[in-house]
C-alpha cells in the first residue's frame, strides 16, 4: 500500500456484508438485544453510511434504549432525504411528544396525518398531543378519526382519561388528561405517557435475504465479545488491581464520536490487554508488562504485503514484534488510550497514534499523497489500541460532501474514504501558493475521526 486509500467501489462482497449486519441487527431487535443490535447496525452503516433502512433501524434501536434525542436526530436526517415519508414524520411526532415538545409534535403529526390520512396511529397520537396542548375539541375529533371512540367519549364527557385500576399499559391504558385549575386547559403529564402505547410507531419491516450465519453462531459471537469487554475484570500479576479498558467495537466508536464530546461517557482505566497467540506489535513507550514465554524483535513497516527496510514507528518510539504465547499489557505514554475491536472492519489511523495491535489483524503502512502524514491500514479481526491527545470527534463524508482537515487534528477514518493533501492550495493558487488552513481533503463515503487537544481553553 503506497497510498492510504479506501476501496474504489462497493462490490458484491460489501453488499453481502452490509445485509448480514443489518439482518443480524433486525434479529437482535426481535430478541430485545438492543445494545448488541446497535453495534451491528453501526457496522452496516460503516459499509453504506447513507442507507435509509439502516438509519431507520438505528433510530428504532436508540428509541428502544431511551436515547430519544439521538433517535430524533436520526429521524430528522432521514426526513431531509424523504420529506414526504409519513412514517418518519410519525416517528418525529412521537419522539417530540415524549420529549414534551408539544408544538413540534403537533406539527409533525399533522404532517403525517396529511400524508397518510388513513393511518389511525397519526390521528391517535394527535389526540394525545392536542390534549396536552389544551385543545380538547381537536383532541376529541382526532381520537374519533383514529377509531378510538371510547377515549373520545371519555375526554368529551368527563374531561379526563385515566387507566382503569389494575389494567397494564399494554391493555389499552391511556395517559391521564385533566383540567388545570383555573386554566380551562387540558393537561397530560409527560410521565404518564405509556411507552407501550407509542412504540408501534417504530415497528419496521425490513425485507432482506436470509444469511448463512445461524442464530447460534451469532449469539456465540456476541457472547465472546461481551466477555472480552467485561469492564470489571482486574489485571493479574504485577499490575495488581489496575483497571483495564474494555475494547470498543470500531464502528460503534467511530459513529458515536459524531455526538458532541460533552455527551460522551467518562473514560475508564488506563490499560489494555492484547493476546500474543498470533503475535502482537507494540510501541516501545507503550509497553507496560508482558506475561508468558515470548521473544521480541524489531518491527518493520509492511508495504504492499511485504516487509520494508524501514522501522515501524518513529525513531524515538519504534515498534517491536512480540511472538510466543502470553499476554501483553499496554498503556498510552501520554493522552488517553482507546482499545478498538475490529470485526471484519477497515480502519485507517495515523501511525503516531497507534500504540499496539494484535497479529491477527492484517495491516500495512502507507501515506496520504502530498501530505507528510504516515498512516496504518488495519483490516480483519482483532484488537488495535490507539492514543488520543484530547477529545475525539467525527464528521460524515459523502460523495457530495467532502471533508477538509488539518494534519495535526486528523486521526483517521472508517469506510471508503480517499485522502489527499495539498488540494486546497493547488485549486486556489495554481499549485505555487501557500497551503490553506485545512490542507487535507477526504472524499468518498464513511466517517472521518478527529483528535482535538485544548490548552488554556485554546485548540492546539
Report what the structure shows:
By secondary structure, this protein is an alpha+beta fold. The protein is 33% helix and 30% strand. It is built from 13 helices and 20 strands. The strands form 4 sheets. Strands 3, 4, 5, 6, 9, 10, 11, 12, 13, 14, 15, 16, 17 and 18 form a 14-stranded mixed β-sheet that branches. The protein has a two-stranded antiparallel sheet with strand order 1-2. It has a two-stranded antiparallel ribbon with strand order 7-8. Helix 5 packs antiparallel against helix 6. About 23% of the residues have low confidence.
Reconstruct the topology from this structure:
Blueprint: H1 12-30, H2 34-47, H3 52-64, H4 68-81, H5 86-98, H6 102-115, H7 120-132, H8 136-146, H9 149-158, E1 177-179, E2 186-188, H10 195-198, H11 215-228, E3 248-249, H12 250-256, E4 271-275, E5 280-283, E6 287-298, E7 300-303, E8 306-311, E9 313-314, E10 317-331, E11 336-350, E12 354-358, E13 361-367, E14 374-388, E15 391-397, E16 403-405, E17 410-421, H13 423-429, E18 440-452, E19 454-455, E20 458-459
Parallel strand pairs: 3-11
Antiparallel strand pairs: 1-2, 4-10, 5-10, 5-12, 6-10, 7-8, 9-10, 11-14, 11-17, 12-14, 13-14, 15-18, 16-18, 17-18, 19-20
Helix pairs in contact: 1-2, 1-3, 2-3, 2-12, 3-4, 4-5, 5-6, 5-7, 6-7, 7-8, 8-9
Amino acid at each position: 500500500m503506497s497510498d492510504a486509500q479506501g476501496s474504489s467501489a462497493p462490490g458484491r462482497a460489501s453488499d453481502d456484508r452490509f445485509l448480514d449486519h443489518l439482518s443480524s441487527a433486525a434479529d437482535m431487535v426481535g430478541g430485545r438485544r438492543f445494545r448488541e443490535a446497535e453495534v451491528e447496525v453501526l457496522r452496516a452503516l460503516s459499509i453504506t453510511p447513507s442507507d435509509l433502512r439502516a438509519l431507520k433501524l438505528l433510530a428504532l434501536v436508540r428509541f428502544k434504549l431511551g436515547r430519544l434525542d439521538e433517535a430524533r436526530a436520526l429521524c430528522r436526517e432521514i426526513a431531509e432525504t424523504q420529506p414526504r415519508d409519513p412514517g418518519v414524520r410519525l416517528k418525529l411526532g412521537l419522539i417530540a411528544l415524549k420529549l414534551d415538545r408539544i408544538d413540534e409534535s403537533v406539527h409533525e403529526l399533522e404532517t403525517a396525518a396529511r400524508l397518510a390520512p388513513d393511518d389511525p396511529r397519526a390521528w391517535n397520537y394527535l389526540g394525545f398531543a392536542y390534549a396536552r396542548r389544551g385543545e380538547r375539541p381537536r383532541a376529541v375529533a382526532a381520537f374519533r378519526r383514529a377509531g378510538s371512540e371510547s377515549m373520545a367519549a371519555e375526554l368529551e364527557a368527563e374531561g379526563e382519561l385515566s387507566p382503569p385500576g389494575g389494567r397494564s399499559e399494554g391493555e389499552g391504558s391511556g395517559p391521564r388528561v385533566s383540567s388545570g385549575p383555573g386554566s380551562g386547559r387540558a393537561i397530560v403529564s409527560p410521565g404518564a405517557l405509556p411507552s407501550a402505547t407509542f412504540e408501534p410507531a417504530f415497528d419496521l419491516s425490513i425485507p432482506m435475504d436470509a444469511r448463512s450465519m445461524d442464530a447460534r453462531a451469532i449469539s456465540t459471537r456476541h457472547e465472546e465479545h461481551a466477555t472480552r469487554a467485561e469492564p470489571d475484570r482486574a489485571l493479574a500479576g504485577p499490575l495488581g488491581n489496575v483497571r483495564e479498558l474494555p475494547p470498543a467495537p470500531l464502528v460503534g466508536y467511530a459513529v458515536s464520536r459524531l455526538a458532541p464530546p460533552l455527551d460522551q461517557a467518562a473514560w475508564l482505566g488506563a490499560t489494555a490487554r492484547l493476546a500474543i497467540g498470533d503475535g502482537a506489535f507494540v510501541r516501545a513507550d507503550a509497553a507496560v508488562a508482558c506475561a508468558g514465554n515470548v521473544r521480541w524483535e524489531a518491527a518493520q513497516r509492511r508495504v504492499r504485503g511485504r516487509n520494508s527496510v524501514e522501522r515501524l514507528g518513529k525513531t524515538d518510539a519504534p515498534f517491536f514484534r512480540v511472538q510466543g504465547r502470553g499476554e501483553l499489557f499496554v498503556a498510552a505514554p501520554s493522552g488517553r488510550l482507546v482499545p478498538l475491536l475490529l470485526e471484519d472492519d477497515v480502519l485507517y489511523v495515523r501511525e503516531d497514534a497507534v500504540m499496539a495491535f494484535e497479529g491477527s489483524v492484517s495491516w500495512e503502512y502507507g501515506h496520504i499523497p502530498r501530505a507528510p502524514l504516515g498512516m496504518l491500514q488495519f483490516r480483519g479481526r482483532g484488537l488495535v489500541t490507539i492514543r488520543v491527545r484530547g477529545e475525539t470527534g467525527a464528521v460524515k463524508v459523502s460523495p457530495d460532501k467532502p471533508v477538509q482537515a488539518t494534519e495535526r487534528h486528523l486521526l483517521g477514518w472508517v469506510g471508503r474514504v480517499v485522502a489527499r493533501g495539498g488540494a486546497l492550495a493547488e485549486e486556489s493558487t495554481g499549485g505555487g501558493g501557500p497551503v490553506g488552513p485545512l490542507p487535507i481533503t477526504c472524499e468518498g463515503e464513511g466517517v472521518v475521526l478527529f483528535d482535538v487537544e485544548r490548552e488554556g481553553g485554546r485548540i492546539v
